[in-house]
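Appendix B. Raw example, untouched.
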Amino acid sequence: MPTPREQARARTMADIVRIGREHLAAVGPAQLSLRAVARDLGVVSSAVYRYVPSRDELLTLLVVDAYAELGEAVAAAEAAQSRQDFAGRWRALGGAVRSWALAEPSRYALLFGTPVPGYAAPAERTTGPGTRVIALILTLVADAEAAGRQAAAPPCGVPASLAADAERVRQEFDLAVSDRMLCAAVLAWVALFGAVSFEVFGQYGPDTFADPAGLFAVQQDLAAGVLGLRSSLAPPTQHGVAQAVRAADDH
């Protein structure tokens, strides 16, 4: 059990992150101030510096917090689907990204918007939580490929110059997935976050699409087509099984 001092420190850190979230939404990341956080916390600024030594550390706490919450939301939505409904898992995953981003635009902007001048997120603390969504996408694609549940192979070749990178990614995420499908997964990842970013940041304009949710659903289905994900739980066709075998041989 944590000691009373450890419990008090945890509560203070949680309060600092909570107030940091509020300030992020109100003034943006570049204007975050530990003095302002201390004022809202009801303590002198020197007291806050004992917990968070700099504005950059506060930004890192907010980045890790946002990545963790996004990752939890996406993982929960994806896990609620049947493991064999690969298209359903993809739609749930993407829908969770969009829902979280629309509910938390300032935190989404911190992660995927304009970089904060002078701040560099420490890779050793942010890479793990920051790669959770792409890890789920890669796992989904690997599962579909292994099960032969893909309707068609992506119509592209993979240059030999990417082979080493693909192998490094496979080892990092401990997945068996062909180079071709790994590249398709990266395309789907970029398309997903591109579509969400356009909506969150108002890039379509105010009068372009009356039904942004409907547009996003179409975009998700197009990305599922790129990945070749089946929309039903029907047994894989012989073509799909053969394709999975060819992909494994290519790898």
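End of appendix B.
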